DNA sequence: ACCTGAACACCGTTCAAGT
DNA sequence: ACCTGAACACCGTTCAAGT
């Protein structure tokens, strides 16, 4: 009865488990998805999950990775469009998984795997923003300007904003970045 | 042996439990603090906690409330100082409890009590920012400008930024708000 | 009203055993 | 190498019983 040594290649099986995890994590949330229920959905014993993933956090990271890959791939076709439009697209694309975004942040302090992933995620998006700008930002303020843009993006994903405010937020962030990129450094007073 | 009907007034006892919860939540984190351990620290049975708080989330909210009250009280003495300085103060004051901030966000989708608290927290800080500005922001962009400032603040608390970037971020956000408050609405192109 | 000791239904994870 | 059934040590929460 137990189907051991199934002929399914490892990568394929892993992908099956990942697909089940992705669906449950997004629909029901990370906390509400127990390993037992997830295993049942995937048609395996809870134990089996641990053959393919170290723990639940690594499963979460793998799901996030898969999603981010797809996101960046889709985003590639948006190059050339205004930055505000790109931001708007990203926000609407990430809103459905806002719970996962919040969960990742909550687990940064708990899991090494999540912390590492989170750092990489920010590096990716900071690079993405930097690339889109018409000119280089004055070096002293660059990290802060990019950080503000990234945090605004994260905030817009994880918080409830109406459509109009979301549009304005994209415009505000894009304006700010363009301004910082095109204007020379002005020494702040005081 | 069991000390029932202790003569300690309800509010005082509640405060004791709250103090224990605050310490453990901050030092060890919310998830790492089990109700059992928390009860032991406070010198009671786990059960007793439920006499004073509906559940663990309500305990979390009560801790956050206590902290926010203290924060706003201390902040009151900063009125009149530059906005960037106030931001910097808030960030450094909130960084030690960054894990709690992240936890709150993660539980917004899980707990009604947390969701309600979170909404109130944002309302408070949006009002605080609005009050500090020299002039009214053009009404159409105001919610977005305030949202960007709030999200930047949250991001700076929950993410690792070096001191210099943190300073610059405060300056960027303050600049942005002042600019939006003093300049008339400029219709965006396109 | 307040508090206990004991239980309940779970949870993520691991282990001995099978093929 | 892969997978199972059964267990382990917990978890948040509740309940009957005491004062």
Summarize the structure.
Chain A has 190 residues and is mostly helical.
What would you say this structure looks like, in words?
The structure is a homodimer of 190-residue chains. With 190 residues, chain A is mainly α. The first copy, chain A, has two domains: 8-53, Orthogonal Bundle (Arc Repressor Mutant, subunit A); 68-185, no CATH class. The first copy, chain A, is built from nine helices and no strands. The first copy, chain A, has helices spanning 10-28, 35-42, 46-52, 56-75, 83-94, 98-107, 112-132, 142-158, 163-182. In chain A, helix 1 crosses helix 2 (35-42). The longest helix of chain A has 21 residues, at 112-132. Chain A is elongated. The relative contact order of chain A is 0.10. Residues 184-190 of chain A have low confidence and may be disordered. Chain A binds a DNA duplex (19 and 19 nucleotides) through residues 1-6, 10, 13, 34-36, 44-48, 50-51, 55-56. Chains A, B: GO terms for molecular function: DNA-binding transcription factor activity; transcription cis-regulatory region binding. Chains A, B: One of its GO terms (biological process) is negative regulation of DNA-templated transcription.
